[in-house]
Design a protein that fits this description.
Length: about 240
């Protein structure tokens, strides 16, 4: 089964079975790597902020660069009104990034390669942004579905398209992350299998592809965390500033 490239995505229980009615609450390998990712973020940024020196060490530099990067991303996409939501967006970005990066470790589990994980994150963002929009603007938030300058004849069609586009946000946000991570790791496993099956003589070419693919997948892991966070900022911008 280990030779099957899809085997790496199997979720299995760790420890005793825990059930609440028909709901399985057992601790799994997915849960374990989500805990690892959360702890890694907490440890790195706790160490990075504990001793602020004029000449920063590597951990402090990483923490400061991450803070600056996310702060600039929020300012550029959602403006100053989104500053109160910095903590959430920063935590979201770092959690997705570390989940992606942990998945690059051999024999580790890629949490974000499962649609249930990415969809729950995306759904939480969707409902949260929608609630913020109604709190800020009341029923005036529905103006988001009525773009200005649209001819009256086309208005019913445009409104339907806007509503469908809005409701599809959690689907597109979750599928983008899940599909990229799953496809990349599947390809890495396939080329790794070619290296083993072809042996020393014929395995050099797929080994070269594997090395290049690993480098590309590290880049994709960062880019997908960035895309996930910046789309959250864009959705938040719509809720706060009501551009229509």
């Amino acid at each position: 089964m280990a030779s099957n490239p899809m085997y790496q995505f199997n979720v299995y229980r760790i420890g005793p079975e825990i059930k609440l009615g028909e709901v399985d609450l057992s601790f799994t390998n997915a849960s374990l790597f989500m805990v690892f990712s959360s702890l890694a973020v907490l440890i790195i940024f706790n160490l990075g902020s504990k001793k602020n020196s004029l000449i920063p060490n590597k951990i402090q530099l990483l923490a400061e660069l991450s803070y600056t990067f996310v702060s600039k991303m929020i300012s550029d996409t959602a403006g100053s009104k989104a500053k109160p939501y910095f903590s959430f967006i920063f935590s979201l970005f770092m959690f997705v990034l570390f989940c992606n990066m942990f998945g690059m470790i051999p024999y580790a589990f890629t949490v974000t390669s499962h649609i249930i994980v990415t969809f729950v994150l995306a759904a939480f963002i969707f409902f949260g942004v929608t609630i913020i929009g109604f709190i800020k603007h009341g029923f005036g938030y529905l103006k988001l579905f009525v773009p200005s300058g649209v001819p009256v004849v086309l208005l019913p069609l445009i409104v339907v398209i806007e509503v469908i586009s809005y409701l599809s946000r959690p689907v597109s946000l979750s599928v983008r992350l899940f599909a990229n991570m799953m496809a990349g790791h599947t390809m890495m496993k396939v080329f790794g299998g070619f290296v083993i099956s072809l042996g020393i003589v014929g395995g050099w070419l797929p080994l070269g592809f594997s090395v290049a693919l690993t480098g590309l997948e590290i880049l994709v892991a960062f880019l997908q965390a960035y895309v996930f966070a910046i789309l959250t900022c864009i959705y938040l911008n719509d809720a706060l500033n009501l551009h229509h």
